[in-house]
TrEMBL record:
<feature type="compositionally biased region" description="Polar residues">
    <location>
        <begin position="288"/>
        <end position="299"/>
    </location>
</feature>
<feature type="region of interest" description="Disordered">
    <location>
        <begin position="367"/>
        <end position="388"/>
    </location>
</feature>
<feature type="region of interest" description="Disordered">
    <location>
        <begin position="1"/>
        <end position="22"/>
    </location>
</feature>
<dbReference type="InterPro" id="IPR006311">
    <property type="entry name" value="TAT_signal"/>
</dbReference>
<feature type="region of interest" description="Disordered">
    <location>
        <begin position="288"/>
        <end position="351"/>
    </location>
</feature>
<protein>
    <recommendedName>
        <fullName>Right handed beta helix region</fullName>
    </recommendedName>
</protein>
<dbReference type="InterPro" id="IPR011050">
    <property type="entry name" value="Pectin_lyase_fold/virulence"/>
</dbReference>
<feature type="compositionally biased region" description="Low complexity">
    <location>
        <begin position="319"/>
        <end position="330"/>
    </location>
</feature>
Length: 602
C-alpha cells in the first residue's frame, strides 16, 4: 500500500554496497569509490573511444559499459544513442553550466543501480533537449528502497536547468528528481512527457521553477519494468516541495492507483503551486502548510496526448527528428490552420453538465486551444458537432459562419473570444422527429438527452400526451405528430400498433435506439464525508455496469474486468448496477457502502 507522505524519504541519501552516500557534501550522487569502479574515460570525447559501434548517418551508437560521461562548462554532448541492451550502466554527469545535452536516446531496459543523468553545476544555464528515456528501468540489482531513477539534481547545484522535449517512462525512483533546493538555481520543463514513474515524474520546488506544456500520468502500480517482489504504489505525476511557488501552465496530469494527480509538500516541508491552465484527473494533496492555487483555465478533463516535439523512440531522439528546435510557450493548438480561422469555445460549469450542438457552413475540427480538452465522446458529423462539458472546456476551429447553436445547461459559448447568445443562431431545438400513424391506435415514448417539445398543429387530447423534461409520451392513429428537440435521440419505443418514425426527414428503426435493460440491484460506495481516499474491489456472479445512481460519478480509473470491479473514492460517490449476488467485497478506507436490491422498483 502507499505510504503516508510524512514517511516519504527525500532521497538525499541512500545505501549501496554497504556504504551510505550523502548528497550534502561534494561527492554528489555517487560516492568516489563508485566512480573509480566505473570503467571508461572521464570526458565525453575519451569515453567514445573503443565503445562506439557502427553508427547511423546522423548519430553515434555507444554501448553501455559502465562509462561516466562528464559534461563540463561550455561543453555540448549530442546525437548519441546509448545502448542499454548490454545490461550495464551509463552515467552522464553534468558538472559545468552553459552546456547543452541534446538529441540523446537511451535504448533498452536500464539495469543500473543509480540515476542516468546527474547534475551538479555552478551558475549558468544548462539545456537538456530531445532526450528519450522511455524504455524504463528495472529494480533488480538495486539494493536501496526505490531503485534507479532517470534524472537527478544535486543539492549544491546552482545552474538554471531547462528540460525540453524529454520522454521519461517506467523509472521506479522518479523521472525528474529536482526538488533538492538549489542555491540560486531553477528548473523549467517545456513540452515534456512522463508516464508510470514511481515516486514522481516532475519533482521540483524552487520559486523560479516552471512546468509548461507538459503531460504526466500513471496507469499502473508496477513502476519500473522487469523486476519482481517489490511493488511501488506511490507514483505522483507532480510533487512540489522544499522551496517557493512552482508555476504550472498548459499542462495535464492524471492519477493512477495512487489517487493523487499533484502533491504539494511532505516531511514537514510545505510546497506551493500556482496551477494556471491545463487539466488534471484525480486528487490534489496538500500537506501541512502547503498551498495550491487552481486557475479558472484548469479543467478536470486532461488531454494526455504526448506534446508535440517529444521523441517516441531512442532513434528519433538521437537523430534529432523528434525536436522542433524551438521553445514552446504553451500547448500547441493542433488545428490552428489559416483555413480554419474561427474558434468556438464551450466553457463548462462545475454546477452541472452542459450539452451543446452547433452547425457551421464550412469545415470544423477539434482544437485544444485555450486549455480545452479533446474528448472522443464529442462527435463531428460533417459540419455539425455534438458534445458535452462539465467542469472543463471544449474547443473547435471552423471555417465559414456559425448557422445553428443549441446549449442545454449552465455552460457558455465564445466565438473568437466573444460570448454569444445561442438564441441568435437558428432553432432552439434543431431536430425534428415525426411519428406517422398507420390507421390503428399506436402508443409511443420518445426520450432525448436535451430539451424536447410537442410541435404538432394537430395535437392529440391532453390526457393522451405527457411531456416531462426530456420525454414525450403520446399516441397516434392516422395522423402525424411532430416533436422538436435538442441533443441526441436516446430512446424511442413504439407499442400497441405500428407507426413510421422520421428523424430530420429520414426514416429510422426505433429498435436501434435505447439501451438494453440494466441490472436491477445497486451498489453505492460513498466517500464524500471521509477523511481520506478509500479503495475497493468486489466480484459479482452476474453482470455489473457503472452507474450515475444517487449522483455518482463515472471514472475511467475504475476498472471492470468481467465480473470483478476495482476502484477508489475520495470526496465523491461511485455506484454500480448489478444482478445476481455479490461473491466478494473488500474495502480499504472509511467509505460507506450501501447495497440496494431491486433499487429500480423503489
Amino acid at each position: 500500500m502507499a505510504r503516508d507522505l510524512s514517511e516519504l524519504d527525500d532521497e538525499s541519501s541512500f545505501s549501496r554496497d554497504g556504504e551510505t552516500i550523502d548528497d550534502s557534501g561534494n561527492d554528489g550522487l555517487l560516492h568516489r569509490r563508485s566512480y573509480m569502479k566505473l570503467a571508461g574515460a572521464t570526458t565525453a570525447a575519451a569515453a567514445l573511444g573503443g565503445t562506439a559501434s557502427a553508427a547511423a548517418d546522423d548519430y553515434e551508437v555507444i554501448e553501455a559499459r559502465g562509462q561516466t560521461i562528464r559534461v563540463g562548462r561550455g561543453d555540448t554532448f549530442e546525437n548519441k544513442l546509448i545502448d542499454f541492451t548490454t545490461g550495464e550502466s551509463f552515467l552522464i554527469y553534468v558538472e559545468g553550466a552553459n552546456s547543452v545535452i541534446r538529441n540523446i536516446g537511451f535504448k533498452g531496459l536500464y539495469r543500473g543501480a543509480s540515476f542516468i543523468i546527474s547534475i551538479n553545476a555552478g551558475q549558468g544555464d544548462i539545456l537538456f533537449e530531445n532526450i528519450y528515456l522511455g524504455d524504463g528501468a528495472t529494480k533488480e540489482g538495486a539494493d536501496f528502497v526505490h531503485g534507479p531513477g532517470a534524472v537527478f539534481m544535486h543539492k549544491g547545484s546552482q545552474a538554471d536547468l531547462t528540460f525540453r522535449h524529454c520522454n521519461v517512462q517506467g523509472f521506479p525512483n522518479n523521472g525528474f528528481y529536482c526538488s533538492n533546493t538549489p542555491v540560486g538555481g531553477s528548473v523549467r520543463f517545456e513540452s515534456c512527457f512522463g508516464k508510470n514513474n514511481g515516486v514522481s515524474t516532475f519533482r521540483c520546488g524552487s520559486e523560479d521553477d516552471e512546468i509548461v506544456n507538459c503531460v504526466a500520468y500513471n496507469d499502473t502500480t508496477d513502476y519500473g519494468r522487469g523486476y519482481g517482489g517489490y511493488i511501488e504504489t506511490d507514483g505522483r505525476p507532480v510533487w512540489v516541495w522544499n522551496g517557493g511557488t512552482v508555476t504550472i501552465r498548459d499542462s495535464h496530469f492524471a492519477d493512477g492507483p495512487y489517487p493523487y494527480a499533484l502533491v504539494a509538500g511532505a516531511n514537514g516541508s510545505p510546497g506551493s503551486v500556482d496551477f494556471q491552465s491545463g487539466g488534471y484527473r484525480g486528487t490534489i494533496q496538500r500537506a501541512s502548510g502547503s498551498t495550491v492555487s487552481i486557475g479558472s483555465d484548469v479543467s478536470r478533463n486532461p488531454d494526455l496526448s504526448i506534446p508535440d516535439g517529444v521523441p517516441t523512440s531512442p532513434e528519433e531522439a538521437a537523430s534529432g527528428s523528434g525536436s522542433t528546435g524551438s521553445s514552446s510557450s504553451g500547448r500547441t493548438d493542433t488545428n490552428d490552420e489559416p483555413d480554419l480561422p474561427n474558434l468556438l469555445l464551450v466553457d463548462g460549469s462545475p454546477s452541472d453538465a452542459t450539452r451543446y450542438e452547433f452547425t457551421v457552413s464550412g469545415e470544423v475540427e477539434h482544437s485544444n486551444a485555450k486549455g480545452a480538452s479533446i474528448d472522443d465522446g464529442d462527435t463531428i458529423d460533417g459540419s455539425t458537432v455534438q458534445g458535452s462539458v462539465g467542469d472543463w472546456k471544449d474547443a473547435f476551429r471552423y471555417a465559414g459562419e456559425l448557422e445553428e447553436l443549441t446549449v442545454d445547461g449552465p455552460g457558455s459559448v465564445l466565438i473568437n473570444g466573444e460570448a454569444v447568445d445561442p438564441a441568435d443562431y437558428g432553432q432552439e431545438k434543431p431536430h425534428v422527429l415525426e411519428v406517422v400513424g398507420s390507421g390503428t391506435p399506436t402508443s409511443y415514448e420518445i426520450t432525448v438527452d436535451g430539451a424536447i417539445e410537442l410541435a404538432s398543429t394537430d395535437e392529440p387530447a391532453t390526457e393522451a400526451t405527457t411531456v416531462s423534461g426530456t420525454t414525450v409520451q403520446s399516441s397516434v392513429t392516422d395522423e402525424t405528430q411532430t416533436v422538436r428537440f435538442s441533443g441526441e435521440l436516446t430512446d424511442i419505443t413504439v407499442t400497441d400498433g405500428e407507426a413510421t418514425v422520421m428523424l430530420d426527414g429520414e426514416q429510422i428503426d426505433p429498435s436501434e435506439y435505447g439501451d438494453q435493460e440494466l441490472p436491477p440491484h445497486a451498489l453505492v460506495i460513498d466517500g464524500v464525508d471521509t477523511d481520506g481516499p478509500s479503495t475497493y474491489s468486489f466480484e459479482v456472479d452476474g453482470t455489473v455496469v457503472k452507474s450515475t445512481y444517487q449522483d455518482a460519478s463515472i471514472d475511467d480509473g475504475d476498472v471492470i474486468d468481467g465480473t470483478t470491479v476495482r476502484g477508489a473514492v475520495y470526496n465523491w460517490i461511485d455506484a454500480y448496477w448489478f444482478d445476481g449476488d455479490i461473491a466478494d467485497f473488500r474495502l480499504r478506507g472509511d467509505a460507506n457502502v450501501d447495497v440496494q436490491y431491486n433499487a429500480r422498483d423503489q
